[in-house]
Automatic annotation (TrEMBL):
Domain Bro-N: 16-132
PANTHER family the UniProt entry points to: BRO FAMILY PROTEIN, DNA-BINDING PROTEIN-RELATED-RELATED
UniProt cross-references to Pfam families, sorted A to Z: Bro-N
Name this polypeptide is given: Bro-N domain-containing protein
Record organism: Streptomyces pimonensis
SMART domains: Bro-N
Domain of life: Bacteria
């Protein structure tokens, strides 16, 4: 029989014990597995050593697993024509061990959880030595389908190991669930405290805003009182207009036609600009009076305190401003 036929027949053979249950009973964990076309299984050495407590996987392989039971995944995949891409899950340089290599590592392990499996292995060896073979009992319930493989009962030690490990896992799950419930309760309590803190902060902010508004009102009132106290009465009165100035001058002196003509020309300038820097000649040209008569009219306004002198401009023209009060 050629090699492909041997591999095909090996792959068609039924496993007496499911390999996942077998490995779980041996190691106490679900370990990654690569199954070849001929039905052989290979396991990442780092996974097995981690679950069995071997801190140095390289040393553990060197001490307990012969070369024929450990290999690089690149070599294994090429031998069987498998394409295993490099990646986080299956690296090309990953060290893998066969099922026999896994059993050898389990036998070298000192974990109490491995004891039932190791006892069963010892029982199998003793039975083979004594009787020449070892066989599993057939299960009480068999498949009625024609050609279906025979189902075997799982050895008591293996079943007990699985049950005990599952119970341990359930306990861990319960502890994890309790921790998660406590964490959720703590998170709810923290959320409640955060909400209360937020309400307190909002109330504090409202009080601070009310205090700011009150202080602004006090400051505005204080500024108003200071302004009323320091501002002279004359500054609080309305700004004079040309009409009000001319009406005031009419009350102060007997206004002749010439004086009124000069007053009508200078009053708007004094009100709008605050001072008069116009030459006598310019005023005379605008009023049609002589320079001498314009000068006399301005002197009359000075005499009756309608205007007052503030010296002269650079060009020699007199400077006049309104007489306030």
């Amino acid at each position: 029989m050629n090699e492909p036929s041997k591999r095909r027949n090996s792959a068609e053979r039924h496993e007496a014990i499911d390999v996942s249950d077998f490995v779980y009973a041996a190691t106490g964990a679900r370990v990654r597995r690569l199954t070849m076309p001929d039905g052989t299984h290979w396991f990442p050495a780092v996974d097995v050593c981690k679950e069995l407590g071997h801190t140095n996987s390289r040393q553990a392989l060197a001490d307990h697993v012969p070369d024929e039971h450990r290999e690089c995944i690149e070599t294994v995949s090429r031998a069987y024509g498998l394409r295993i891409p490099a990646g986080r899950e299956w690296r090309r340089d990953l060290q893998v061990i066969s099922l026999q290599g896994l059993i050898l590592l389990v036998n070298a392990c000192t974990k109490p959880a491995c004891a039932p499996f190791k006892q069963w292995v010892a029982e199998v060896i003793e039975t083979v030595q004594r009787e020449g073979s070892y066989s599993l009992d057939e299960a009480e319930v068999q498949s009625a389908a024609p050609g279906a493989p025979i189902a075997y009962a799982m050895p008591e030690q293996v079943a007990e190991a699985i049950v005990r490990l599952e119970a341990h896992n359930l306990q861990l799950d319960e502890k994890l669930a309790d921790g998660q419930r406590e964490s959720i309760a703590l998170q709810k309590e923290m959320l409640t405290m955060q909400r209360e803190l937020l309400v307190t902060q909002q109330a504090t902010l409202a009080v601070q805003q009310a205090m700011v508004r009150a202080m602004e009102r006090i400051a505005d009132r204080f500024d108003t009182l200071v302004l009323e106290r320091r501002t002279p009465t004359a500054l609080l009165t309305a700004r004079p207009t040309t009409e009000s100035v001319l009406a005031d001058w009419r009350q102060r002196l007997s206004v002749t036609e010439d004086v009124w003509a000069v007053a009508v020309v200078v009053a708007p300038v004094l009100v709008e600009r605050g001072e008069l820097r116009e030459s006598l000649e310019s005023i005379a040209a605008r009023t049609g009076l002589s320079v001498r008569r314009v000068n006399e009219c301005l002197r009359l306004l000075l005499k009756h305190a309608c205007i007052r002198s503030r010296g002269g401009a650079e060009g020699g023209a007199p400077v006049y401003v309104l007489q306030q009060g």
